[in-house]
Automatic annotation (TrEMBL):
InterPro entries: Pyridox_Oxase-rel, Split_barrel_FMN-bd
One Pfam family per UniProt: Pyridox_ox_2
Organism superkingdom: Bacteria
This protein's name: Pyridoxamine 5'-phosphate oxidase family protein
């Protein structure tokens, strides 16, 4: 028997303010970038600073090497966070696209700390400025 269409969750677009509110409530997201071999996605711990995402990574890692490849300047990148309840078929997803650049020591001192979950050195700090912020939510009517 087919489910009644009124029982199905609805998909709605989120405005920029709601997207930033949802981003502000998290600590783990994914950075998407081109590492020279193609699109790559890496999870990172982050904090929100205005409408920019601040994250840390290791100096030797693929993410840091790729984002430092254009200095000075910004590397095009994206950042995505989502939360889903698979049982209820509800959730949301936010995508931030913009330019990423390394933070100077002075800039690092002015932003909220980011505490990476994994051990080891995470001395490369980056800011991903939001040129575009979009989001969608799946919810029950």
């Amino acid at each position: 028997m087919a489910a009644n269409s009124s029982d199905k969750p609805v998909l709605e677009e989120l405005d920029r303010a709601e997207c930033l509110r949802l981003l502000a409530g998290g600590t783990v997201g994914r950075v998407a970038f081109d590492d020279g071999e193609g699109p790559t996605v890496v999870p990172v711990n982050y904090t929100l600073d205005g409408d920019a995402v601040i994250f840390r990574t290791s100096l030797e890692g693929r993410l840091s090497r790729s984002l430092l490849s254009v200095v000075p300047g910004e590397v095009r990148a994206a950042f995505q966070v989502d939360r889903f309840d698979e049982e209820d078929h509800e959730g949301w997803s936010v995508l931030l696209r913009g330019g990423a650049h390394p933070l100077s020591d002075g800039e690092i001192a002015q932003v909220e700390p980011v505490e990476p979950w994994p051990g080891g050195e995470r001395d490369a700090w980056f800011r991903l400025a939001a040129h575009e912020v979009t989001g969608r939510r799946v919810r029950r009517p």
